[in-house]
Specification:
With 329 residues, the chain is α/β, with parallel strands linked by helices. It folds into 2 domains: 6-122, Rossmann fold; 147-327, Hypothetical protein af1432, CATH 1.10.3210.10. It has 14 helices and 5 strands. Helix 3 (63-72) links the parallel strand 3 (51-55) and strand 4.
């Protein structure tokens, strides 16, 4: 008999908390309650629930602050959080994004809506587990194939930028998670390339550039055996396609390029521009955005470039330290 999924219900209103617990029990879940955000932090660490339902408006510590702390703690950051509010949700959504919550629902919550949202976020929990298993396996592969550590094909900066872009354009929590891991693994195929090609300061010969281009195909092949390959492999294979169809490896054009690949392409392009390279110094954020604008509609998806450039993300991303990177998405 499968184990019952556990859900932590956080609400300072006792009758409301009990009613929510009763609804979830009817749906087959095991529940426990917490009366405020501070109590939720302690209970989440102890219980490690599959999902947290968190009311926004609570004394002592509100839901947004509690969620922010949950997502900053490695012990609880992967637990999906569904925020609840009894007020107009529109001003709460930006706060929800900032705190790292995965979804927002308005009370009173119909049983059917609750069931749909909860099951979607439980799928997200499974996806995160699969992604982390894939990531751990590929990190071991990188260490084995590159024991000196001279190649660094796993890119945390691109990962966080891709996740932030996915959130910015309104993709759901599952797609944001996929964007993160696609960004992290997009250059995994570089472990199969000669190191001298990757560190070359001068221009490459045509046959050498053709060899470099193979990293997208190799990367998709490396990730293919892992779950969920159906979403990761296309993003890795196609992140060097161009909007005008002149990219590689398959010369896909416009909307034919998978969305995740388009997101990773913008994230990768921006991070490359604001980072020192062997052949040039890093550009300023303003110059990087100018270059992205110049390539909008030819190299990159114009909708993604416009959304990214007109948001506060570029400055925030460029202004954080490595240890704070995970806080920006």
């Amino acid at each position: 008999m499968p184990e019952r999924r556990s859900i932590l219900v956080v609400d300072d209103n006792g009758p409301s908390r009990d009613a929510m617990g009763s609804m979830l029990s009817t749906l087959g879940f095991w529940t426990e309650g917490a009366a405020d955000g501070a109590e939720a932090l302690t209970a989440a660490k102890r219980l490690q629930p599959d999902l947290i339902l968190m009311d926004v408006e609570m004394p002592t510590m509100n839901g947004h602050e509690a969620c922010r702390r949950l997502k900053a703690d490695p012990a609880t950051r992967d637990i999906p959080v569904l925020m609840m509010t009894g007020f107009d949700p529109r001003p709460e959504r930006p706060k929800m994004v900032e705190s790292g919550a995965d979804d927002l629902i308005v009370k009173p919550i119909p049983m059917r809506d609750l069931q749909v949202r909860v099951r979607a976020l439980l799928r997200l929990r499974e996806l995160r587990r699969e992604m982390h298993t894939t990531q751990a396996s590929l990190r071991e592969l990188v260490k084995r194939e590159n024991p000196s550590g001279s190649k660094t094909p796993l890119d945390d900066q691109v990962a966080v930028t891709a996740q932030a872009i996915a959130r910015l354009i309104g993709l759901d929590a599952e797609d944001q998670e996929v964007a993160y891991h696609a960004g992290l693994l997009h250059d995994i195929g570089q472990i199969g390339l000669p190191e001298e090609l990757l560190t070359r300061r001068g221009s490459l010969m045509p046959d050498e550039f053709a060899q470099i281009q193979q990293h997208t195909i190799l990367g998709a092949e490396i990730t293919g055996p892992f779950r969920p390959a159906s979403v990761l492999a296309p993003a890795i294979r196609h992140h060097h396609e161009r909007w005008d169809g002149s990219g590689y490896p398959d010369k896909l054009q416009g909307p034919a390029i998978p969305m995740m690949a388009r997101i990773v392409s913008v994230a990768d392009g921006f991070q490359a521009l604001i980072t020192d390279r062997p052949y040039r110094k890093a550009f300023t954020v303003a110059k990087a955005l100018e270059i992205l604008a110049q390539g909008s509609g030819t190299q990159w998806d114009p909708r993604l470039v416009a959304a990214f450039a007109t948001s506060s993300l570029p400055q925030r991303i460029a202004g954080v330290s490595d240890e704070d990177t995970a806080k920006i998405a």
